[in-house]
Design goal:
Helix content is about 0%, strand content about 60%. By secondary structure, the chain is mainly β.
């Protein structure tokens, strides 16, 4: 019923840029908050950036001033522009969405992840 598909992951050198996309298929259901998480080998999954349905954003301290999250509600798509990439940004990046199922009830969904590798 709800699918999140990430794309845009790649291997880049430090200082480079990437743009991730998360396309949501919701069968007409509306999306509330969306977010990007990442998980590096041996580490727990961590929040990178979050964006509400009306465009309010918040970022992890480690990516502030380098990453920008945005969304196109008409296309049910969220983006993550990543600039000045560092080797420590290497991780699998996951899309997360809170979908409004019916009045007063929502459910959460995850994408399958996209690999970002930054070499020094």
């Amino acid at each position: 019923q709800v699918q999140l598909v990430e794309s845009g992951g790649d291997s880049v050198q430090a200082g480079g840029s990437l743009r991730l996309s998360c396309a949501a298929s919701t069968s007409g259901l509306s999306i509330n908050t969306m977010a990007w998480y990442r998980q590096a080998p041996g580490n727990e999954r961590e929040l990178v950036a979050v964006i509400t349905s009306d465009g309010m954003t918040n970022y992890a301290d480690s990516v502030k001033d380098r990453f920008t999250v945005s969304r196109d509600n008409a296309k049910n798509t969220m983006y993550l522009q990543m600039n000045s990439l560092l080797p420590e940004d290497t991780a699998v990046y996951y899309c997360y969405a809170v979908v409004n199922i019916r009045s007063g009830y929502s459910s959460t969904y995850w994408g399958q992840g996209t690999q970002v590798t930054v070499s020094s």
